[in-house]
Design goal:
CATH topology: Four Helix Bundle (Hemerythrin (Met), subunit A)
Distance between the termini: 23 Å
Shape: elongated
CATH architecture: Up-down Bundle
Order of helices and strands: HHHHH
Membrane topology: Multi-pass membrane protein
Low-confidence stretches: none
Structural class: mainly alpha
Keywords: Acetylation, Endoplasmic reticulum, Membrane, Transferase, Transmembrane, Transmembrane helix
Number of helices: 5
CATH class: Mainly Alpha
Enzyme class: transferase
Number of domains: 1
Mean pLDDT: 95
Protein name: Microsomal glutathione S-transferase 1
Oligomer: single chain
Largest sheet: none
Subunit structure: Homotrimer; The trimer binds only one molecule of glutathione.
């Protein structure tokens, strides 16, 4: 496995763990407060369905949606990066920094910390633009 494939694999697994953690965070708050919006979930714990999700669950859902707007694009660009043989030495930096930025973005989102949430988001976007340029430069 070459360097780009290795770091792509590590980034993919770490991003999966991060997204799973957001789901667990939502479940932790729902179960901890026995507050569920879905009637069948509320009935399971003998409660009435909540009118809306808990604030922590809503915030985590927005962080999750932001991941769904960014991580699939990163994963697709990562495959293209490897397929065209873009600069392997850049892969460790681009894939690692993107992954770290997404972790920080989620942390800052859950804690409501600005401007750092936006900075973390921007760092991830810069990584994807840089990956795109590297891919185009590697094309014959």
């Amino acid at each position: 496995m070459d360097q780009a494939e290795y770091w792509y694999t590590v980034a993919s697994v770490l991003l999966f763990f991060k997204m799973f953690a957001i789901s667990a965070y939502q479940g932790f708050h729902r179960i901890g407060k026995l507050t569920f919006k879905n009637p069948e979930d509320a009935a399971f714990v003998r409660r009435e369905a909540a009118e809306e999700e808990l604030p922590q669950v809503q915030r985590a859902a927005r962080a999750w949606l932001n991941d769904l707007e960014n991580i699939p694009i990163f994963l697709a660009l990562g495959v293209a990066y490897i397929w065209v043989g873009a600069t392997p030495g850049w892969a460790v930096w681009l894939f690692s920094i993107f992954t770290g930025a997404r972790y920080l973005h989620t942390l800052f989102y859950l804690c409501g910390i600005q401007p750092w949430r936006t900075v973390a988001y921007a760092v991830g976007v810069v990584c994807m633009f840089t990956m795109s340029i590297q891919i185009l430069l590697a094309l014959p």
